[in-house]
Amino acid sequence: MCLGIPGEVVELLDAGRHLAKVDVAGVRRNINVALIDDEGVVPGDWVLIHVGFAMAKIDEAEAQSTLETLRQMGQAYTDEMQAVVGSQIA
């Protein structure tokens, strides 16, 4: 199962390559924000991430609610978080 995981943008890394660093439940990873560049991504924004791409901007309340729902999914959430930990976008 593939899930969209909320993450908070902590740093914009490379505007030309559309890269940002996000914090996903304590794990920091680089993601591509090209799909939502027109929305103006800045540190502090929350985004919904799937396979290393930010798919949408969401507000913090929605992010926290989604994270709680995902945690309740058990193994599917654990599997997705392992995928986040193992991912590398440079």
What this model shows, in words?
- This protein has about 90 residues and is of the alpha+beta class.
- It has a single domain (about 5-85), classed as SH3 type barrels (Roll).
- The protein is about 25% helix and about 35% strand.
- The protein contains two helices and five strands, in the order βββββαα.
- The protein has helices spanning about 60-70, 75-85, and strands spanning about 5-15, 20-25, 25-30, 45-50, 55-60.
- A five-stranded antiparallel beta sheet has the order 3-2-1-4-5.
- A hairpin with a 4-residue loop joins β1 and β2.
- The longest helix is centred in the last third of the chain and has 12 residues, at about 60-70.
- The protein is globular, with a radius of gyration of 12 Å.
- The mean pLDDT is about 85.
Keywords:
90 residues, alpha+beta, 5-stranded antiparallel sheet, globular, SH3 type barrels, 2 helices, single chain
What's the structural blueprint in terms of helices and strands?
Elements: E1 5-14, E2 19-24, E3 27-32, E4 46-50, E5 53-58, H1 60-71, H2 75-86
Antiparallel strand pairs: 1-2, 1-4, 2-3, 4-5
Q: Name the poorly predicted regions.
A: none
- Approximately how much beta-strand content do the residues carry? 35-45%
CATH class assignment: Mainly Beta
What is the CATH third-level topology name?
A: SH3 type barrels
Over the alpha carbons, how many angstroms does the gyration radius reach? 12 Å
Helical percentage: 25-40%
Number of helices: 2
Q: How confident is the prediction overall: mean pLDDT? A: 87
N-to-C span: 25 Å
What overall geometry do the principal axes of the alpha carbons give?
globular
Second CATH tier, the architecture: Roll
The order of strands across the largest sheet is: 3-2-1-4-5
The profile of the biggest β sheet is: 5 strands, antiparallel
What kind of oligomer do you see? single chain
SSE succession? EEEEEHH
SS content category: alpha+beta
Q: How many domain units?
A: 1
Total strand segments: 5
